[in-house]
Write a structure and sequence with these properties.
single chain; alpha/beta; Nucleotidyltransferase, domain 5; Hypothetical protein af1432; 3 domains; 5-stranded mixed β-sheet; 17% strand
Amino acid sequence: MQSLFLQQSHDFPFEKIAAIDLGSNSFHMVIAQVTHGQLRITSEFGEKVQLAAGLRNGILDDESQKRGLDCLAQFAQVIEDMPTGSVRVVGTNALRAAKNRYDFIGKAMDIMSHPVEIIAGREEARLIYVGVSKTMDHGELKRLVVDIGGGSTEFIIGQQLEPILTESLHMGCVSFRQRFFEDGTITKSNFQKAVTAARLELLSIQDDYLDEQWDVAIGSSGTIKAVFNIIKENNWSKKGITPKALKQIQKALFEAGHADNIDLPGLKPERKNTFAAGMAILTAVFECFDIKQMDFSAGALREGVLYDIMGRYAESDIRERTVNYMLNQYYIDTEQAKLVTHTALSALEQVKGVWKLNSISSEDLLRWAGLLHEVGVGISHSRYHKHGAYIISESDMPGFSQQEQQALANLILRHRRKLTQSLEYKFTKSDQQDLDRLTILLRLSILMHNDRKEGDMPMFTLEADDKSIHAEFLPEWLESRPLTLANLQREAEYLASAGYILTFS
């Protein structure tokens, strides 16, 4: 199985990049050419997998997994020669909800040889907004963006390239079809029940979004695209999606009476069985937010992922901004954090070859952990590593996948005291070994700066093999620091309990 961690280079090295969206309803892939910093989409692929339809009691059944894996095998043919880092594969609501998601992810990564990331709902919303804002220019106008997926619906208010509010609600066209239209029957009664259920979900965000206000409403992805195309094909509106046009679509659905009987120009046959459910959600959105008109954007999650790939190799990596925000939000001692980080990266440089920690993601994780290792100090000093891990694990961290976020939490949890502490989150054997080794480097770096003397940089060399590490210090440096010496002795005991040997001189 391939590693969950991406190998990266901060100088953009690719002429071609790809984004794969493992959605609850459909799997999609887009390929783009990169020329002079600009994207040009060259090919698109998609298949109605309906992963969420196979989600029973939190478990993805074998049939839905097979549909997904068969689709990915087709995608793999296109991307098999693309280098690691040029392809991002993101899983959304169905995989977020599935208890056996890592069984599926492991099989998927074996097929594609590219990491699969599960992204949180608000991160999905952020990426959708990036995709919309990069493909539609509204100047200074504030936008409400709505994206109805198979298992969740994302809402964003933003201005230019910056999201202001992001939210993801657990309602989608596949999940609502199962709840209200399972046998395909469409009546005014079950449609209204679905609208009411959606309105109840919307109550949790309605006031905040209405208070923020917006100038234009934009819809994206499959359901809203289908609605937009139907309205256009039937000439029901010249202003995009309107409440009146939605009423006309509803009338057509009630007259059809069943998903199989829907005959609407502009609606693809494969979308018939989820369309009424998606329409019910969109109707509720229009009612709750009093929307008079909505445009459609061709850009959404996949386009957002493409631009995010480019951003990760530039000064605009959103993850760096997130870390800087947290440094300020939690009043972290930045001077101490920078000293620890500098020493940790110096340590990594010395052993990365032997310990096979050569990917940029290892450097990034270690750097973020060094900067944020004291994020929990403001809650309680005696257990700040545990509080810090909780903060990192549970916070909204724009730009971070769930795997990256949990890996960072893992490093922060284990940077002091017992190395054997662990989160509930499970990593592959290979990734856990990498995290163990990064944790050791972080612990040693923190230990060397235990006296918190600004500008005091230790002079040392490291040698390592599979399960051991030796630190060599300048004699006068270690001799003049009895506290550091005592801490190194204690650290050797901690590492021994985890199966590693630490020696020093």
